[in-house]
Specification:
Helices cover 44% and strands 16% of the residues. With 205 residues, the chain is an alpha/beta fold.
Length: 205
């Protein structure tokens, strides 16, 4: 089996009713971008009805209202479709531990799984974009002058921004370290390496 490359991944983002599926929080929107050889070839975006009303805070934060969710399909229906979309792909998210928790929890509820591994663009950005004032998605996008329409906290917009950030980091590795086609495993490794040790890791890659 060939080694998965970092430029062929699915970048995903959840909007949710709160911070923890263990506390009963559910997903209310999923957005994802499929990258193949560094190009967007497909997207997935769907609101989903969690079966209860969301708080005013979440409505304001995401712009997703209870009225919008009332007519949305159920989490179970959407996540079943999404499980098929991501099957066999490596996955990327900004603050991946958050998105992975919700992906795992929602798929557990319908008895589905996935075979791909996760990489966290936020942890990797902390190593590769050390000068950014913060490593929140919006701040990184502004710091790197990544083209954006100013929409954040909606799932597809955030996954599109994360995909652009991911490709910008791959480009930087090519320019700075002459690493043209990094493996997905190398990106995961960068996210787990101390900031000081990253240049040595990349010089030897």
């Amino acid at each position: 089996m060939s080694t998965p490359l970092a430029n062929t991944v699915i970048v995903l983002d959840f909007e949710t009713t709160g911070l923890s599926p263990n506390m009963g929080d559910r997903a209310i929107e999923i957005g994802a971008v499929r990258l193949v050889d560094g190009k967007v070839t497909d997207t997935f975006q769907q609101l989903m009805n969690p079966g209860f009303r969301v708080s005013g805070f979440i409505e304001n934060y995401t712009g997703i209202t209870n009225n919008m969710l009332r007519t949305a399909p159920s989490c179970e229906e959407v996540m079943s479709e999404f499980a098929d979309f991501i099957q066999g792909s490596c996955l990327v998210a900004h603050n991946a531990s958050f998105d992975k928790r919700f992906l795992d929890a929602e798929l557990d509820l319908i008895g589905k799984g996935y075979s791909g591994e996760f990489a966290c663009s936020m942890l990797i950005a902390r190593r590769l974009v050390q000068d950014s004032p913060t490593h929140k998605l919006g701040d990184l996008v502004r710091f790197l002058n990544i083209d954006n329409d100013g929409v954040f906290h909606r799932a597809l917009a955030d996954s599109e921004m994360t995909a652009k950030l991911w490709l910008a980091m791959l480009q930087d590795m090519s320019t700075t370290y002459q690493i043209d086609n990094p493996s997905f495993k190398l990106m995961q490794k960068i996210g787990k390496t101390t900031k000081a040790a990253v240049p040595r890791l990349l010089r030897s890659a």
